[in-house]
């Protein structure tokens, strides 16, 4: 979820991409959103199928970055347990326990075999991060239509944060947000994206019955999720710098991989779950 791509002259030229490249990027993004919204509104079993496909795709990209196979024993364990809980939510506690035990086992195995500990640790943490985020989305937003509409509203928060950050950062420019992590992102984009997200989400809230679903102040909630979206974007930049790649994958034309496009959704999902747990 890129915040800005501004130059020092702070002009408002919004893109330097070739027209056909911009068209491909726009069309692929539009159809991806269309498929996601359709699956969310439909609910079961479409949402579980979409969640399973996204989980496998995200894990495949993550494991490829770590030079691991999708059929790595740990990958099979956590993917299998996560998909199982999509359909049997009463097994969530067992699945979490088994994943923790499996993580400890593979870390211990790494030490005993005198292999490098840190790469294995990174692979395991990232895998649990992805599985937990997708699991939360399926658990919280697949019960009834109101929750699924709430899910779409949250996707809007992420989209407004992303788009607002890009356009405002492009026009205003200014000091860099984290030059060593992502040189093109600015503080103006960061603040602007958050403000745009808060304003737009509050205006749209009545159409999604958010006041009936949310247990806390809407502005505060959107602010927290918008910051989480920015964090997910920066985290993805850190990961790509660590592995020395431009994109995590090539699945979506003009956008890169699933990890490149769903970075903010993963971080927002975990925050949504944490807030729900704290306010229940």
Q: Could you describe the 3D structure shown?
A:
Helices cover 72% and strands 3% of the residues. It has eleven helices and two strands, in the order ααααααββααααα. Strand 1 and strand 2 form a beta hairpin. Helix 4 (92-112) runs antiparallel to helix 5. Mean pLDDT is 85; it is low at 1-17.
Topology:
Blueprint: H1 19-42, H2 46-65, H3 73-87, H4 92-112, H5 117-140, H6 145-172, E1 176-178, E2 182-186, H7 187-204, H8 210-213, H9 218-243, H10 258-261, H11 263-279
Antiparallel strand pairs: 1-2
Helix pairs in contact: 2-3, 2-5, 3-4, 3-5, 4-5, 5-11, 6-7, 6-9, 7-9, 9-11
Give, in spatial order, the strands making up the sheet with the most strands: 1-2
Helical residues, percent: over 70%
Largest sheet descriptor: 2 strands, antiparallel
- Count of discrete alpha- or pi-helical segments spanning 4 or more residues: 11
What integer value in Å does the Rg equal?
Answer: 19 Å
Unreliable residue runs: 1-17
Which structural class is indicated by helix and strand composition? mainly alpha
- Rounded mean pLDDT is 85
Helix and strand string, N-terminal first?
HHHHHHEEHHHHH
General shape: globular
Distance between the termini: 30 Å
Number of strands: 2
Strand content: under 5%
């Amino acid at each position: 979820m890129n915040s800005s791509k501004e130059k020092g002259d702070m002009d408002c030229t919004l893109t330097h991409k070739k027209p056909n490249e911009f068209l491909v990027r726009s069309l692929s993004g539009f159809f991806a959103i269309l498929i996601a919204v359709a699956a969310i509104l439909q609910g079961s079993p479409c949402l579980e199928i979409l969640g399973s496909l996204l989980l496998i795709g995200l894990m495949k990209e993550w494991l490829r970055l770590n030079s691991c196979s999708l059929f790595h024993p740990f990958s099979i364990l956590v993917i299998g347990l996560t998909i199982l809980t999509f359909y049997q939510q009463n097994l969530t506690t067992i699945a979490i326990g088994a994943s923790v035990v499996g993580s400890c086992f593979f870390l211990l195995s790494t030490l005993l075999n005198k292999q490098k500990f840190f790469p294995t640790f990174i692979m395991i943490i990232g895998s649990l991060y992805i599985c937990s985020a997708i699991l939360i989305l399926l658990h919280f937003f697949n019960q009834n239509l109101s929750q699924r509409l709430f899910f779409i509203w949250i996707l809007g928060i992420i989209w407004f944060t992303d788009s607002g950050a890009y356009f405002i950062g492009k026009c205003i420019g200014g000091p860099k947000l984290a030059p060593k992590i992502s040189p093109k992102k600015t503080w103006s984009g960061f603040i602007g994206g958050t403000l745009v997200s808060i304003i737009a989400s509050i205006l749209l809230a009545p159409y999604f019955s958010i006041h009936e679903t949310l247990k806390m102040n809407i502005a505060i909630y959107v602010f927290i999720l918008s910051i989480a979206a920015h964090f997910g974007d920066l985290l993805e930049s850190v990961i790509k710098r660590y592995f020395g790649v431009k994109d995590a994958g090539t699945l979506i034309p003009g956008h890169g991989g699933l990890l490149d496009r769903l970075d903010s959704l993963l971080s927002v999902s975990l925050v949504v779950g944490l807030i729900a747990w704290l306010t229940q």
